[in-house]
């Protein structure tokens, strides 16, 4: 048996759902392109009392008179029945079943993305594929290319997780500089003949260790091929290779030829999806440029194509842009990343992100000054433009490392079983629908029906377009399909308790996805929480009263996430008796990103380290909290400060607003803040150092709020 380790980056399916294509890297950093396709054959076992002569005669008839194209003997009484296409395959299977000709051993084939979830092939984690002789042969003998195009069939794949780090990615950070033909029409990349000129593209090649900087610039002025940036403008000197071009077409062709030499794993930009790549795509179309094959797929020619972008957050948008089709080269827009992971920042400009995360920003050159310097194009003007553009790309590299973006992208891909760039650019409802479609064959049965049924049913209405699903039901369904002892133990553990249930809501509410860390007993009529004098506790098994601790630990709620999901001025409480919807209350939000995966990882490690354990020996884990995990928010309203003690909170918030230069008298009512042991801290401040303020969260304050909310519902 041969095996090879590989690192899946992403996968996607063809239009007809007939194959799945996997893009990844090998341990030696070579990249691979794998296509898992439909196999047009099935295997039949004939009854032992059936003679060889009868079998041979049957095959002669089948090949000549039925959709069967070929029959091959594999073992005594076992034959492979092949067809020419999927339609013939299905007809052949139906013929065998109808006539009872033998037992079909491998009829069911599923080549959708669910296959990856079942086999634990997840983007962002190392895997080992066994029996891939074709893969090994192509990789070891193909010296010309860094990738290989091959096929293998689903039945040959077996994978295991390996605790080894991935090889360093080859990342290209780039930034585009464009100038308008006048000072009015900039920017305008939607016209068929855009009037603006791309005059510079800075490119940083980074492999996790070394950095190499190049700028492609449109100028006829004399510039040295090697240049060192001005430390006064860029913080410290950086070595830059300067490539000059007489025409914009030549400059764009050189940029893509450079990518062909690099063959990057990722193209990283800031607002590149709507600006940089959009502009480049328009100009590539304008000049009739054919892109070179810079991806890791053999003989694949990347291309730009128009696509409609529709979004609601952070602002409504509907526009057509030019997008780059480059499978195996991940395109990451850091603007999308920071908007998705840190929505509380409000302002997501590169200057703002740089100051918050790195403590430094751009060179300070304004756009108008940039235009003026390029139009003059003295050597010193061009050097300042190069410093400006190169520093922008270097900021992207430094943000990539400081924010651990590679790790975040891997976690996103693992959680959603989807490509990280797809996760960044799609609404969470779409991601969840994909998760439903790819991981489990059927929508979970646990679905809280809309409308307002009788109170006896205890599933009061939410909204006609809002549903709740249990993500743990989906996860358990996927685990059950693995048929492995370890997976069975995990399923047994979760099904034996009522732990780890995560509701999902979709439809009407602006808040698209919230997960609740709790032990909700959704199958019993007893309340899932005990409201006591000083705390609220959540149970993991049915109990008769607060003194009945039951078989599982009785956790104080202060260690976990509340049961409240807030959507603007409405909130939803999920309890063991159903779902309650209430309007008119603004409270707080504690979203969760990867809860159930962390639970499962913990259980897996515990079982591996303690083989003698059964599912009943496990105890539910507790995890350290962070501001990223919980993102607590409390909206300030006039009622919050009605009592005298709260006036100090109001004054503290107003003082913080004044320090930030904001109009405190008019804006304090709209500000959001977290309550810490040092007092209230508004979001503009706590978002600068999430780790510091997460450690200071005033859990008692939020626990009290939760008690009030729960008492208003269940008494």
From TrEMBL:
InterPro entries: DNA-dir_DNA_pol_B, DNA-dir_DNA_pol_B_exonuc, DNA_pol_type-B, RNaseH-like_sf, RNaseH_sf. Residues 110-353 form the DNA-directed DNA polymerase family B exonuclease domain. The keyword Phosphoprotein does not apply. One of its GO terms (biological process) is DNA-templated DNA replication. One of its GO terms (molecular function) is nucleotide binding. Keywords: Nucleotidyltransferase, Transferase. This is DNA-directed DNA polymerase family B exonuclease domain-containing protein. PANTHER family: DNA POLYMERASE CATALYTIC SUBUNIT, DNA POLYMERASE DELTA CATALYTIC SUBUNIT.
